[in-house]
């Protein structure tokens, strides 16, 4: 049987890769994809803990995370399309309209 | 047997995740992310959560990644391909990420809370029935709220991406 900390370690590795993508990449599309990676690594942790402590709430929470992620991606890509239409840029550094 | 499969899926998922972050072309990133999601759904199967594995494939690979690819198709990514990804370009962020990774690995390896080797018995393989009973009995209100959030996101995305502003 696979020990629990293997799953946790996989979640950690995926989380760090996703965080590096969010912080280091300058392309908005890749930043959004790295965000998906972060949420998925958290889902692995939820389901692994739920499995090893025999608690269904881990899977319930993972279902909610997936639902909210779908909503988030729809809104984020809508904003992205509006942004590209108005400012025609994909770089995070160019979007400073809210800076004041 | 289980360990071999886990190592296979984990290795491929980490490699494809690295490809997501390191690829210069967003289309390559999206395809690598799709492969990564497939590996993660296989890991869900290993964790005896087949319903979550199917949901993962439907929602992530079927809906979210297709949405990403549609948006990439709609907008011009040629300019984005040209800009290089420099790993040392943002040194403080890189150091922060490395520190975060070291800290989490150290905590996981130190703590004996994660040392559970044998999972609790899962009953009689009637997982999905128990899962749905939990979801629709104890978590009915969050379920309904999630559906309202999805509706709001649907309307919001249509309004945001509409052609004329107003």
TrEMBL record, chain A:
Reaction catalysed by this enzyme: a quinone + NADH + 5 H(+)(in) = a quinol + NAD(+) + 4 H(+)(out)
GO MF annotation list: NADH dehydrogenase (quinone) (non-electrogenic) activity; quinone binding
Coiled-coil portions: none
Protein keywords: Cell membrane, Membrane, NAD, Quinone, Translocase, Transmembrane, Transmembrane helix, Transport, Ubiquinone
Keyword Transmembrane annotated: yes
Entry-linked NCBIfam families: PRK05715.1-2, PRK05715.1-3, PRK05715.1-5
Family, similarity comment: Belongs to the complex I subunit 4L family.
The protein, known as: NADH-quinone oxidoreductase subunit K
Organism listed in the record: Phyllobacterium trifolii
UniProtKB/TrEMBL annotation, chain B:
Pfam families: Oxidored_q3
Keywords on record: Cell membrane, Membrane, NAD, Quinone, Transmembrane, Transmembrane helix
Reaction(s) the record says it catalyses: a quinone + NADH + 5 H(+)(in) = a quinol + NAD(+) + 4 H(+)(out)
Keyword presence, Lipoprotein: no
Listed EC numbers: 7.1.1.-
Any one Gene Ontology cellular component term annotated for this protein: plasma membrane
UniProt subcellular location: Cell membrane
GO molecular function list: NADH dehydrogenase (ubiquinone) activity; quinone binding
Membrane topology, as annotated: Multi-pass membrane protein
Superkingdom of origin organism: Bacteria
Broad EC category: translocase
Chief location of this protein within or outside the cell: membrane
Transmembrane segments annotated in the record for this chain: 6-23, 30-47, 53-77, 89-110, 139-161
Entries under Gene3D superfamilies matching the protein: NADH-ubiquinone/plastoquinone oxidoreductase chain 6, subunit NuoJ (1.20.120.1200)
Family matches, as PANTHER family: NADH-UBIQUINONE OXIDOREDUCTASE CHAIN 6
Biological function: NDH-1 shuttles electrons from NADH, via FMN and iron-sulfur (Fe-S) centers, to quinones in the respiratory chain. Couples the redox reaction to proton translocation (for every two electrons transferred, four hydrogen ions are translocated across the cytoplasmic membrane), and thus conserves the redox energy in a proton gradient.
Family statement: Belongs to the complex I subunit 6 family.
Name of this protein: NADH-quinone oxidoreductase subunit J
UniProt lineage: Bacteria, Pseudomonadati, Pseudomonadota, Alphaproteobacteria, Hyphomicrobiales
């Amino acid at each position: 049987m696979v020990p629990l900390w293997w799953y946790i370690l996989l979640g950690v590795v995926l989380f760090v890769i996703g965080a590096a993508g969010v912080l280091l990449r300058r392309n908005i599309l890749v930043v959004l994809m790295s965000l998906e990676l972060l949420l998925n690594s958290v889902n692995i942790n939820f389901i692994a803990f739920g499995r090893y402590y025999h608690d269904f709430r881990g899977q319930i929470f993972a279902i909610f995370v997936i639902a909210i992620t779908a909503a988030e991606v729809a809104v984020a890509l809508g904003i992205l399309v509006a942004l590209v239409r108005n400012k025609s840029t994909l770089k995070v550094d160019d979007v400073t309209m809210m800076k004041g | 047997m289980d360990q071999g499969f886990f190592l296979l899926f984990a290795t491929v998922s980490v490699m494809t995740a690295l490809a997501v972050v390191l690829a210069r072309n967003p289309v390559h990133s999206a395809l690598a992310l799709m492969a990564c999601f497939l590996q993660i759904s296989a890991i869900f199967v290993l964790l005896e959560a087949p319903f979550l594995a199917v949901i993962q494939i439907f929602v992530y690979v079927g809906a979210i990644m297709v949405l990403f690819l549609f948006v990439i198709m709609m907008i011009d990514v040629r300019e984005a391909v040209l800009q290089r990804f420099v790993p040392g370009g943002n040194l403080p962020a890189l150091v922060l990420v490395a520190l975060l990774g070291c800290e989490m690995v150290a905590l996981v390896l130190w703590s004996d809370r994660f040392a559970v080797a044998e999972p609790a018995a899962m009953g009689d393989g009637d997982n999905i029935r128990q899962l749905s009973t939990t979801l629709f009995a104890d978590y009915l209100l969050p379920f309904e709220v999630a559906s309202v959030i999805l509706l709001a996101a649907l309307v919001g995305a249509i309004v945001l991406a509409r052609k004329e502003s107003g």
